[in-house]
Amino acid sequence: MTARDDIPVLAIMGHPNAGKSSVVATLTENDRIAIDKRAGTTTTSDEYPVVIDGENIMVFIDTPGFQNPSDILEWFQAHPDERDLAEAFVAKHGDDPLFSHDCALLRPVADGAGIILVVDGSKRIKEKDRTEMELLRLTGRPRMAILNNLTNIDKHMPAWQDALNKSFNSVREFNAHRATYAERIALLNALKTIDQRWEPMLTETVRAFQRDWERRIEQSAQTIVALMHEALAYKVTRIVKVDDVDSDNEREAIREKLAEAFQNGLRRMESDAQKKIRAHFHHNVWDLPSDSLLSKDLFSREVGQALGLNQRQMAVAGAAAGAATGGAIDLVVGGISLGAAALIGGTAGGVLGVLGGAALAKIDIQRTLGVERFTMGPVTNPRFPFVLLDRIILYSARAMNWSHGRQAADEDSLHKVPEKHQAKKRGFTEALSSEDHKTLAKFFAAARKGKQTPHEERSREIIEGILRGVSRSDVDTRVKL
Ligand SMILES: Nc1nc2c(ncn2[C@@H]2O[C@H](COP(=O)(O)OP(=O)(O)OP(=O)(O)O)[C@@H](O)[C@H]2O)c(=O)[nH]1
Ligand SMILES: [Mg+2]
User: 26 CB under 6 A from ligand 1?
Assistant: First the structure.
């Protein structure tokens, strides 16, 4: 069997700059692999295992591009009696500095790896390509070809399909920059067909991938539920000597600072949860364009308008969760009457977008023993939790669907959503049933009071359901990222 210790080993081969390292990075979810627009980036054959539960379940070997494929092919053709041409070639030339590049390239194959040839399907086929295909065919190893369409020119694709079909057991289109989880699984499944003997082993590998993905979804849903708990029960307190607040201006300044601290606390919680989600999906490189909804302030108008429930949905969900979350806002707190603007604090303009005019939380002022105790929180605004939830799901969708081979590349950016599509897109929570809205609203209401509720379990399931939907290939969430 052409595998090491019963796990599949595949060498990724092809022209310099065909996108080999990008394919390896995407398949192994490793965004630290060197990828560059200049040819000749990879100079040695490097192994990248896929590790699940501390165990290697599969190995990909990134190789340098072919330099002199015709030399290798000539040697292969001149030695028709060799049983294993790659092995024989390396055995013969391993010590010869003139062939060091060719040997670096062929060694993984000589050692038994299967082959994935990566070609740039947007370019015309050249003689050198045919030479590479033929020499890989002659190795006799199980082999698949990947058409990685680098520039979206597809007029050459049929010719590639024809040529590759003659020498490869399987030919697939796979875009290293756009591939989703579902497409990665489809590719692994297709690898089963390149050699029947690999089937049982690959079936196990695919299962391990699926289990791991499912676990990440569960972990992410847990991270999200924990964020909702923390954010909704959050309070900030400032204690000030009565003598230091002897004017309305001073009191107002304290309220503003408190509101600012409250918002910052929520921003920090969101960002901590984002870091966790990023880690669940193995992202180290993380660059967002400035026009992404994820780059905007949590309390900005854009975020408030794009995410969360609409007014009608909000009314239904709020009613189900009781008056506490239904939007009834007690403007008289601690005996001091406060206008809505005062409740919101100094950044009223920004906050209004998210909150639809209602305060984020109440400020309570208590006077005892010569001090005034200003407390803001917990969140009373009924819309805010839905906005926060939508945004962390949006973040998760990006983490789940952003391929690791893409790294920070932003050509043909999916972020630049044309205006005409923007209005049609709905937030994730908006698309749920009103039953689910009610369940979530009840969970949020309990979380505000720091209480447990059976609605939490169901809410976690709802969130898991959304995340599962996001990683299905037939759901195009990318436009929203
Ligand atoms: N648009 C687009 N660009 C891609 C895709 N795959 C790779 N690239 C780009 O193509 C260039 C070369 O990618 P690499 O993965 O470094 O190619 P390579 O075959 O490993 O190159 P060498 O190591 O130099 O042989 C980089 O600029 C990548 O960002 C793709 O699917 N779409
Ligand atoms: Mg490379």
Answer: no
Nearest ligand to the C-alpha atom of residue 36? 1
Q: What is the DSSP letter of 17?
A: T
Mean pLDDT of 195-222: 93
In the block, residue with structure tokens 């749920």: 432
Distances in Å between the Cα of 110 and the Cα atoms of 43, 104, 195 are: 18, 10, 17
Between the CA of 84 and the centroid of ligand 1 the distance, in Å, is 31
Name the pTM for this structure. 0.87
Please give the pLDDT value at position 347.
37
Give one DSSP letter per residue of 49-101, joined into a string: EEEETTEEEEEEEE-PPPS-HHHHHHHHHH-TT-SSHHHHHHHHHTT-GGGHH
- Residue 226 Cα to ligand 1 midpoint, Å, equals 39
Are 120 and 132 in contact by the 8 Å Cβ rule? The answer is: no
CA of 411 to the centre of ligand 1 (A): 12
88-97, 150-159, 396-405, range with the lowest pLDDT? 150-159
Query: Among 263, 187, 272, which residue's Cα sits nearest to residue 223?
Result: 272
User: CA Rg, the chain, in Å?
Assistant: 29
Which residues lie below 8 Å from residue 131, measured CB to CB, with a gap of 6+? 69, 70, 73
Domains of the chain (ranges plus CATH)? 3-176 (3.40.50.300), 212-480 (no CATH)
- Whole-number average pLDDT of the chain: 85
- For the CA of 406, the closest atom of ligand 1 is 29
- C-beta of 173 in contact with ligand 1 (< 6 A): no
DSSP 8-state symbol, 475:
S
Burial track 27-36 (b if 16+ CB lie within 10 A, e otherwise): bbbbbebebe
Ligand 1 and 39: CB distance under 6 A: yes
- Mutate which of 17, 148, 410 for ligand 1? The one with the most ligand atoms within 8 Å of its CB, which is 17
What the block records as the tokens of 347 is 């950044």
Q: Report the atom number in ligand 1 closest to the C-alpha of 407.
A: 29
Contact 280, 219 (CB under 8 A): yes
Q: Is the dihedral of CA 113, 114, 117, 118 positive or negative?
A: negative
